[in-house]
């Protein structure tokens, strides 16, 4: 399984899916939604670990995304399953949406 996290200045997403091709029909991963990711050039100018990123990124977006990730991991560890495929966060609007795996 693959748990992918991504964020922008005030928004982020957590995508949980399978790595194996035969499982991706039921558990698509982030590459199924964003097929262009492997072809994008690496961008080393922004990093959540350097002080300059604080000028271009809300200080709480990384915490919000990792908290959403931990919710998925907790369900997997505690209950052995989760129906959370995708969690989208928007700190500007205060909204968070959770989407289940496709049927």
- Number of helical stretches of at least 4 residues: 3
Tell me the distance between the termini.
18 Å
> Number of domains in the coordinates?
1
Q: Approximately how much helix is present in the residues? A: 25-40%
Helix and strand sequence: EEHHHEE
The structural class is: alpha+beta
Instruction: Indicate the proportion of strand residues.
Output: 25-35%
Mean pLDDT: 89
Net shape: globular
Unreliable residue stretches: none
Q: From the alpha carbons, calculate the radius of gyration and give it in angstroms.
A: 15 Å
Your description of this structure?
The chain has about 100 residues and is an alpha+beta fold. It has one domain (about 1-40, about 55-100). Helix content is about 25%, strand content about 25%. It has three helices and four strands; from the N terminus they run ββαααββ. The protein has helices at about 30-35, 55, 60-80, and strands at about 1-5, 10-15, 85-90, 95-100. Strands 1-2-3-4 form a four-stranded antiparallel β-sheet, with helices on one face. β3 and β4 (about 95-100) form a beta hairpin. About 15% of the residues are buried.
What distinguishing features does this structure have?
103 residues, globular, single chain, alpha+beta, 26% helix
Summarize the topology.
Blueprint: E1 2-7, E2 11-17, H1 30-33, H2 53-56, H3 61-79, E3 84-90, E4 95-100
Antiparallel strand pairs: 1-2, 2-3, 3-4
